[in-house]
Amino acid sequence: MIKKRAMVLVSNDPESIRLGANEIVQHLNEALVTYGIQDEVDVSTVSDVNHSNILPLVVVYPEAVVYGPVKASDVRYLVEEHLYKGRVVDDLLAPPKMLTGQIGWLRGHKGYNPAEHRIVLERAGRIDPENIEEYITANGYEALGKVLSEMTPESVIEVVEKSGLQGRGGAGFPTGRKWKFVRAAQGSKKYIVCNADESEPGTFKDRIVLEGDPHVIIESMAIAAYAIGADEGYIYIRGEYGLAYRRLEKAILQAREFGFLGKNIFGTEFNFDIHIHAGAGAYVCGEETALLESLEGKRGEPRSRPPYPVTKGLWNKPTSVNNVETLANIPAIVRNGAEWYRSIGTPSSPGTKVYTIMGNVNFSGVIEVPMGVTLREVINIYAKGMKPGSTLKLAQTGGSSGSIIPAVLQDTPMDFESFRKAGVSLGSGALLICDQNTCIVDLVKVLLQFFRFESCGKCTPCRVGTQRSYEIVDRISKGQGKLEELDTLLELAAEMERASNCGLGQTATVPIRDMLKHFRTEVEAHIRSGSCPTGICEMAQEVEKV
Amino acid sequence: MPAIKSLEELKRVREEALQKKKMKATPGNVQVIVAMGTCGIAAGARDTMKSVLSFIESNSLSGITVTQTGCIGMCEQEPIMQVVIGDQPKVVYGKVNAEVAEQIMKQHVQNGIPVKDYVLPL
Ligand SMILES: Cc1cc2nc3c(=O)[nH]c(=O)nc-3n(C[C@H](O)[C@H](O)[C@H](O)COP(=O)(O)O)c2cc1C
Questions:
Q1: A352-359 and A430-435: which strand pairing?
Q2: Whole domain around residue B86: which residue ranges?
Q3: How far apart are the C-alpha atoms of A178 and A201, rounded to whole Å?
Q4: Residues of chain B falling short of pLDDT 70
Q5: Is B7 among the domain residues?
């Protein structure tokens, strides 16, 4: 099988279709055959582009060149020039103004590699993380200086609020609003806590920031502290992240030496310092209230809420808990402004998202792209397509409690709003991409095995619910399941969602629901015929036929 | 280092640091940058680094700065090593084990010819 080297997207909103988008797709496919490159180029469609005056649009990746308006009669020339000979057709280019819409636009880029848009990962892998001067040469600490010398805490919060930044730790809560709550909370002692626990299986995006660019976390925590009125911060870091821990320690020492931490920072009244605390390997300690308990030296079990950390957090003081990726956006937002940030991504989910890509694809690793890019784009462009012989069956977004998306939903833009609408969760940004040889029952069983192990046991719905769900799915995988147990799974799920004390139990049900929503036939096959359609599940030797 | 007390001072420090950086990128100078994130180290970046350093030592080379960086996201290609000679554009290599590192030092750093087989198309 030949690796796809390019992908073409044609807008297919009603207006584009009225103006001939379908004919364009048809002509494209024909022209690709004419030039004999049909196996190297993927053609697909994209909706919600929101540009009525330049429709239909044709976007060519990996260079992210946008053509529009395109007529069916232009297509052959475009294929010959751009896809066959590799020359951009200037005459057909869409006007170079900022594109908006419900999908994320990739930046134009000439060359082999796809266009990424790096804000969070701008410096990781490019600077020496153990040398503060390299961070400073890349505009480091300028945002902190600007904030302390030119801005009030309120105006900092306003910029962050206007930027539309939403938390990247999983819940997507607006960061500016969180800071506002903490600022408004009663009390003179407040804390900023960086959630660097990154306990979600298959996710290592935060580690790349911590290891490759530790100063950005220090700078943004100082900015956050100033905004919310804190003078002390904690980084709660996953226990396994030894290298990141050491680099952070070193960075903190350097920052103190340069006066970015400590007393009278930038010659102002502002004092701030940071402590690091390593976790001990419990998934639940990534949940912010369990994290706070753990920081206080107690057993890492989630608290009952309300009160929320913004009013009663660490040592019962108002606390802002922010994820690493969230924080890493802050200095760039302060330097470039809210408008700039809003110009990236989609109107409802501005900015970028860092994804950890893995599975049956040609490239696995970490990428940062605008919010609103689709799964298809990620797979075809960044992951360089499915492995030879693999076709996409499903993808899991967001780690163990993330949604399982069937291949038919791969054109849903990946942003908070579109996902919410499609009933999908973006989670932590892990993208596990699975081919036809994946058994849904097996996959969900592995996930539930994880949850029953990681449930902290404090509340019954989660402790027992994860265990019972696992047992049922385990039985199904052995050919011993019963059809009525699928209803039991859904009943359990409803109880766990309603009554669990924290997100662990509340979202452990997502894979179960998705399994039954999108792959029910496959699950039933395990039960009805006692066989696994993909041949993955070990069936019991003697299956009692129902 | 006295604490930085204003934006102006920060700018001055940045200028100085940029100057230092530029000095590194002048003819006659070579920078070898090894990616030392967890993925790099797991793939053997320490051996890569050792090989570079011992090559420099055993050949008594000078004018070479060896530094590290983090992961750039292409974990599959680790160990990744970059070579910048003078003010020429940087060359990024993937899957650089100790032997490849030595080959790069010999062929690229000493003789100016990039080792094509390991260059990552960026
Ligand atoms: C079981 C569980 C595990 C979590 N693990 C993490 C984690 O590893 N890192 C993280 O940043 N947030 C994690 N969260 C989300 C946090 O509770 C919290 O929403 C987040 O730290 C807030 O930061 P943000 O607003 O910047 O997203 C987890 C939540 C739950 C329920």
A1: parallel
A2: 24-118
A3: 26
A4: none
A5: no
